[in-house]
Amino acid sequence: VDNSDDIVGWHVFGGEGGSSAPTRALYYGDSSDPSNLNYDNDGINHGSAKIPLSFGQEGSAVTLTFDAFFDTEASPDFDALSVFAVLGEERYLVWDKSQFEFVGVWSSYEVDLSGFAGNIGVLEFFFDTVDNTINYNEGVYVDNVVVVSSCLTRACEIDADCDDGLA
What we know:
The protein is an all-beta fold. Helices cover about 0% and strands about 45% of the residues. The protein is built from no helices and ten strands. It has strands at about 1-5, 10-15, 25-30, 45-55, 60-70, 80-85, 90-95, 105-110, 120-130, 140-155. Strands 1-4-9-6-7 form a five-stranded antiparallel β-sheet, with no helix packed on it. Strands 2-3-10-5-8 form a five-stranded antiparallel β-sheet, with no helix packed on it. Strand 6 and strand 7 (about 90-95) form a beta hairpin. The protein is elongated and about 50 Å long. It starts with a strand and ends in a 14-residue tail after the last strand.
């Protein structure tokens, strides 16, 4: 993890106090007081949680699935969670908060990473408050992160079958 603040940021947390995580999950917030979870440090804060990753064999179908819980501002412009595929010095946005479903409930997400097949890199979960207001909510949890790569070459009957949306 790489956090802009010593207390507020990404860490493993859950199953304690008022946490919304059923067991342990990756949590963005201040867990120093389990009875009062939030991500407010009176300023703007952000952090990255990075997972080294092989994106499977070249040409294979690669899928990321994860569960997320948001207790943040609903607007995708603030308290923003983004997921990046990082190859060397390049970061590619593969998912962002604009695709989230509901505040206050766990939701599952699926992301096609087939465009990165054949590479070794990093999967990065990045949270940014963007501003210093309304950061007193519980925060963000990410759990059940799974990347699956088929051993078979991805079948494309027409070009659109293999369009992963990446330039």
